[in-house]
Amino acid sequence: MQLDGTDRKILRELQLDAGRSLDEIARAVGSSKTPVWNRIRKMREGGVIGPQVVIADADKLGFEACFFVLVRTSEHDADWQGRFLHAVRSRPEVMEAHRLAGDIDYILKVRVQNPRAYDVFYQALISEVKVHNVTALLSMEEIKNTTALPV
C-alpha cells in the first residue's frame, strides 16, 4: 500500500493517541472526518494499522522490574526452537522477544514485579527448555519508550 503525506499525518496522530475522536484527528491533519475515516479504514485493510490497544503503565500496576534477558543456546534444531518459542510465547512476563544475529541468540524483554518474580520466571523457562547461557540485565531507568514509528 502506498502512503501519501496525508496518510502519514494521520498515522502520526494515531500513534500519539488513537483514542481521540475522528473530528480531533481530522482537525489536526487539516481534513474532514469522512476522508480521514476512509483513509484509516484503507490502512487497516492494507495491514498498515494493526489492532488498537491500551498501553498500561507497568509501574503503576506493580510491574516495577524490567529485565533484558540475553539467551545463548548450543542447540539450533527445529524441535528445540519450537519448544523455546512456545515457552517464550506462553509466558505473559515476556513483553518482547527477538532472535538476533551475532553472539547472542535471543533477547527478551521481561516485565515482573521484582527480582524474586524474575527468578520464578527464569526457573520456569529453564525447566521448559535447555539453554546454554542466560544473562539477565536489570533496567535501572527507562529513558525512552515509544511505540510510534517515524512515519
Automatic annotation (TrEMBL):
Keywords: DNA-binding, Transcription, Transcription regulation. One of its GO terms (cellular component) is cytosol. Residues 3-64 form the HTH asnC-type domain. SMART domains: HTH_ASNC (SM00344). GO terms for molecular function: sequence-specific DNA binding. It comes from the Bacteria. GO terms for biological process: regulation of DNA-templated transcription; response to amino acid. This is Transcriptional regulator, AsnC family protein. It comes from Salipiger bermudensis (strain DSM 26914 / JCM 13377 / KCTC 12554 / HTCC2601).
